[in-house]
């Protein structure tokens, strides 16, 4: 899967998986090599556990790949699709950065799934390819971070929260950053969160931030702002410390707990405070963040 261009990978795929490694049904054989038997035993576990992290959407099937929720979208809708619509990649349903053209879709997607799609940051011109990862379950942790600058060149703070796959609090923090911009505060908060995750021995980490500018900056190949290049490089380097990691944009409404911790950082006299358990002032926001509840938000066109 990772080295698909290697001779060994091409040989296995052409012999055992002519329709691709994600094909639901492998050909049945009465006899076969140990390689075939191993593939047959592990295939169903592999197919159900793997999912896509979407960056530019060029390699991910809109209908048949697992990239949002816990099921392919085709299993959630009923009715025929035209050959063109059936072949849609995720990028084919994009208008611009994270702006979706649902008018291209003839079948009704469930409202909760549609909202989940809207929260995914995708840019069809992004130079970073889509990639497969193992499902966010046991062994995976979620880091949410936020930075706050009062005036967007003003007194700033940062904060974040780490939860396990069940939504349980693992760690949190607030930091007084000083006098700087929102983006600088966002990056410093992220750096603190990544360092905390490393200290906790976390290997698999999904990062969510509500600053699209910061996410795009980290995902870009180069950093055009010389004043940010050092901390951007630090964050990229720290992300590489994990066995598996991903970074995505989320809406502010889904980042309430980190937002409160960041704002608290603006008021702190100490540079950095770690919270091994959830402090009282974030409990309500934490409950909402880890729930399946929804809320309305206004998005400028």
Q: Which keywords apply here?
A:
two-stranded antiparallel ribbon, 31% helix, RNase_H-like, globular, RNA-DNA hybrid ribonuclease activity, 2 domains, alpha+beta, six-stranded mixed sheet, 10 strands, RNase H type-1 domain-containing protein, nucleic acid binding, Nucleotidyltransferase, domain 5, single chain, 9 helices, 301 residues, RNaseH_sf
Describe this structure in words.
The protein is 31% helix and 21% strand. It has 301 residues and is an alpha+beta fold. It folds into two domains: 7-132, no CATH class; 136-289, Ribonuclease H-like superfamily/Ribonuclease H (Nucleotidyltransferase, domain 5). A hairpin with a 4-residue loop joins β5 (140-149) and β6. α5 runs parallel beside α7. It is globular and about 65 Å long.
In short:
It comes from Fagus sylvatica (Beechnut). This is RNase H type-1 domain-containing protein. This protein is of the alpha+beta class and 301 residues long.
List the SSEs and their pairings.
Blueprint: H1 7-16, H2 34-49, E1 50-53, H3 83-86, E2 94-96, E3 99-100, H4 111-118, E4 131-134, E5 140-149, E6 154-164, E7 169-180, H5 182-199, E8 204-209, H6 212-219, H7 229-239, E9 244-249, H8 256-266, E10 272-275, H9 283-289
Helix pairs in contact: 5-7
Strand order of the largest sheet: 9-8-5-6-7-10
Query: Overall pLDDT, averaged?
Result: 82
C-alpha end-to-end distance: 38 Å
Task: Give the amount of beta strand, in percent.
Answer: 15-25%
- In N-to-C order, the SSE pattern is HHEHEEHEEEEHEHHEHEH
Gyration radius, rounded: 21 Å
CATH H-level superfamily title of the largest domain: Ribonuclease H-like superfamily/Ribonuclease H
Quickly count the helices: 9
How does the major sheet shape up?
6 strands, mixed
Class by SSE composition: alpha+beta
The backbone outline, from C-alpha atoms, is globular
Assign the CATH topology of the largest domain: Nucleotidyltransferase, domain 5
Helix content: 25-40%
Count the E strands. 10
List unreliable stretches of 5+ residues.
none
Can you name the CATH architecture of the largest domain?
A: 2-Layer Sandwich
CATH class of the largest domain: Alpha Beta
- The total number of structural domains is 2
Protein name: RNase H type-1 domain-containing protein
GO molecular function: nucleic acid binding; RNA-DNA hybrid ribonuclease activity
Pfam families: RVT_3 (PF13456)
Domain RNase H type-1: 137-267
């Amino acid at each position: 899967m990772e080295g698909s261009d290697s001779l060994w990978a091409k040989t296995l795929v052409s012999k055992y998986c002519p329709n691709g490694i994600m094909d639901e049904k492998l050909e049945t054989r009465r006899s076969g090599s140990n390689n075939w038997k191993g593939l047959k035993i592990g295939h169903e576990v592999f197919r159900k556990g793997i999912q896509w992290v979407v960056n530019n959407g060029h390699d991910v099937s809109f209908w048949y790949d697992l990239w949002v929720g816990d099921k392919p979208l085709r299993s959630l809708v009923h009715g025929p699709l035209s050959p063109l619509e059936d072949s849609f990649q995720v990028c084919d349903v994009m208008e611009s950065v994270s702006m979706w053209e649902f008018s291209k879709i003839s079948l009704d997607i469930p409202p909760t799934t549609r909202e989940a799609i809207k929260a995914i940051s995708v840019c069809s011109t992004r130079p970073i390819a889509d990639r497969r990862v193992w499902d966010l379950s046991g062994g995976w942790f979620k880091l949410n971070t936020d930075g706050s600058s009062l005036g967007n060149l003003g007194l700033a703070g940062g904060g974040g929260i780490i939860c396990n796959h069940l939504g349980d609090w693992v760690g949190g923090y607030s930091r007084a950053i000083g006098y700087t911009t929102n983006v600088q505060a966002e990056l410093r908060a992220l750096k603190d969160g990544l360092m905390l995750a490393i200290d906790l021995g976390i290997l698999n980490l999904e990062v969510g931030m509500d600053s699209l500018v910061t996410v795009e900056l980290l995902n870009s190949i180069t950093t055009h702002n010389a004043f940010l290049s050092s901390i951007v490089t630090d964050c990229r380097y720290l992300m590489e410390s994990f066995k598996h990691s991903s970074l995505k944009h989320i809406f502010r409404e889904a980042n309430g707990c980190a937002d409160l911790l960041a704002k608290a950082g603006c008021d702190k006299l100490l540079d950095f405070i770690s919270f091994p358990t959830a402090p009282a002032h974030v409990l309500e926001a934490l409950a909402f963040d880890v729930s399946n509840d929804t809320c309305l938000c206004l998005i400028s066109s």
